[in-house]
Amino acid sequence: MKKVVNGLQAFGKSLFAPILLLPIIGLFIAFGNVFGNGNLAQYVPFLEIPIIQNTGKFISASAVSILQNLALIFAVGIPIGLAKKDKGYAALTGLVTFVIFINAMHQVLELAGRIVPAEAMQLSGQAMVLNVQVLEMGVFSGIMLGALVGILHNKFCDIEFKGVFAIYSGHRFVAILAIPSAMILGALAAEFWPIAQNGITALATGIKNLGVFGLLVYGFLERILIPTGLHHLVYTPFLYTELGGVAHIGSEIIYGARNIYFAEMADPAIKVLSDTVNWDARGLSKMFGLMGAALAMYVTADKKKKKMAKAILFPAAFTSFLLGVTEPLEFAFLFTAPLLFVVHAILTGTGMMLLSIFGVHAIGANGFIDFLLYNLPLGTTKSNWPMFIVVGLLMAALYFIIFRFLILKLNLKTPGREDEAAAETNSQEKSTTKKVIPNGPPAELGATIIGALGGSDNIENVDNCYTRLRLILKDPNAVNEQVLKETGSKGIIKSGNNVQVVYGLNVKSVRDQVDQQLGGI
C-alpha cells in the first residue's frame, strides 16, 4: 500500500510541469481579451482603435492554440516531473515517443480502412493531432506516454554497456525501449481506445446525472486530499478531459472544463460561458471562505495572543485571497484542529454546488487577481462575475459562523488558543535553537535545511511544486521538524518515504539553495 501511495504522489507531482504552465496561457488569453474584447471599449474609448483590437485578438488567438496540443504538453512535461536526473533527455524522449505513437495509431487506422473524411471526423471520434489523423484521445495519450517514459527513464537511464554497444547506454537505451513501446501502444489504442472512450463517456454521464451533488463530492475530495498531495489526481481529469465537459467551439470540439472556458474567452461568438466552468471554481473558498475562517480564528484567540494570531493569520489569508495560495493558512489549523479541515473541505464542495444552483458562470480558479483579469474583460453577461462575489460573501459568512462555533464549542487549538504549556515549550525551543532567517545567506539556509532532513546522505530526491519542497528520504524519522519551522516552513507532511515541507511562494528559492548545497541530486 505504501508503494502505491508513493507512486501516486510521484505521479501527482509530475503533473505540475504542464498544469502550472496552463494558467500562464490563460493569463495571455485574458490579456488579449482586455484589448480585443468590445465590452471594455464601451468604457475605455482608446480600446476601439483597430490596431489595439487586432493586437488583442492576435495575442488571444495565439495563446488559445495550445489547447489543441495539450497531449503533447503532458507527454513532454510529465517525464520532466518524474525523472530523477537528466530531465532534459527525459523530455526529449517524451516528445519523440508521442510523435511515434500518433503516427503508429494513424498507420493502423489507415491499414484497416478506418480513416474517415475530414467532414466526418468529429462524429467518428477522430481528430488531427500535429497534422496526423488519429482517434481523439485528448490528454490521456500524453499522460500515458509521459508516465511510460518517466518510468523507463528512472529505471534504465543509468544502465551501461561495454565495447561497441557502449553508445547505446544511458538515455539512449531508454529511447530504444520507449520507441517500440510507443508503436505497440499506438496499435493497441487504435483497436481498444473506443472501448475506453465509451467507459469515460459513461462515467462523465454518471457524474453529470448526480447534478449539483456531483460538484459537492468533487469539491470535497479535491480539498480533503490537499495534505496528501494527491488532489491533482482529482481535478486534472475534470479540467482537461471529457469528465469536465465537452463543447463545440468554432470548428473544434473542446474537452475539459478549463480548456472550454479558455476557448470561450477567446471566441467573441460565445455570449455566455458554459456552466462547466464551475468544475474549476476552486477559488471560491480560496478568495472568500478562508477569509471567514481566518477571521473566526482571530476573534476566538485569547486576548493576550491576538497579536501573535494576527501575525500568523492575516498575511496567510491575504495570500490566499489575492493569489489563491492556501497552504500557509490551511496548515495553521490542519494539524492542531483537523476537524476544521474536514469542515473546510465540505464547505468547499458546498460553495461549488451553490454556484451551480444560482446559475453562476464566472471564472474563479485561483485568487482575486486572476479573477479580475479573467472576468472583467468578458462583461457581466458572458461572465456574471458579480454573482460569484455574492456567493463568495455568503460562503465567507458560513465559514466564520461554523468555524467560530466549533472552535469555542470544542475548545479547538487554533492559532492564539494553544495551551500555555505548549506555548512555553515552543518558547524554550526557540530560545535554544539558532534562528535561521528564511531569506538569509544561501549557504546557511540550504545547509540548515539539509541538516534538518537528516543530512545529504538521507536525501534521495529533491523537487518542488507551487508551494512545497517535495523530497524522498531514506529515513523520514530523521527529520527535525522544529528546525525546519525555524527556516520558514509552514508545515511538514510525511507519507512513507515521501516528505513535503510547505514553504509557500518562496519554495523555488528554497529549492535552489538546497540544490546548491547538495550539488544536484
UniProtKB/TrEMBL annotation:
UniProt organism field: Niallia taxi
Domain PTS EIIC type-1: 2-419
One Pfam family named in its UniProt record: PTS_EIIC
Transmembrane segments annotated in the record for this chain: 15-38, 58-82, 89-109, 129-152, 173-193, 199-221, 283-301, 308-325, 385-407
Entry keyword set: Cell membrane, Kinase, Membrane, Phosphotransferase system, Sugar transport, Transferase, Transmembrane, Transmembrane helix, Transport
Protein name as catalogued: PTS glucose transporter subunit IIBC
Cited PROSITE patterns: PTS_EIIB_TYPE_1, PTS_EIIB_TYPE_1_CYS, PTS_EIIC_TYPE_1
Xref: Gene3D superfamilies: Glucose permease domain IIB (3.30.1360.60)
A single BP term in Gene Ontology: phosphoenolpyruvate-dependent sugar phosphotransferase system
Catalytic residues as annotated in Swiss-Prot or TrEMBL: 465 (phosphocysteine intermediate)
Localization terms from the record: Cell membrane
Origin: domain of life: Bacteria
Topology in membrane: Multi-pass membrane protein
The PTS EIIB type-1 domain, residue ranges: 443-521
Keyword Transcription: no
InterPro entries: Glu_permease_IIB (IPR036878), PTrfase_EIIB_Cys (IPR018113), PTS_EIIC (IPR003352), PTS_EIIC_1 (IPR013013), PTS_Glucose_EIICBA (IPR050429), PTS_IIB_1 (IPR001996)
NCBIfam families: EIIB_glc
Entry GO terms, CC: plasma membrane
Major subcellular location class: membrane
Coiled coil region boundaries: none
Gene Ontology MF annotations: kinase activity; protein-N(PI)-phosphohistidine-sugar phosphotransferase activity; protein-phosphocysteine-sugar phosphotransferase activity
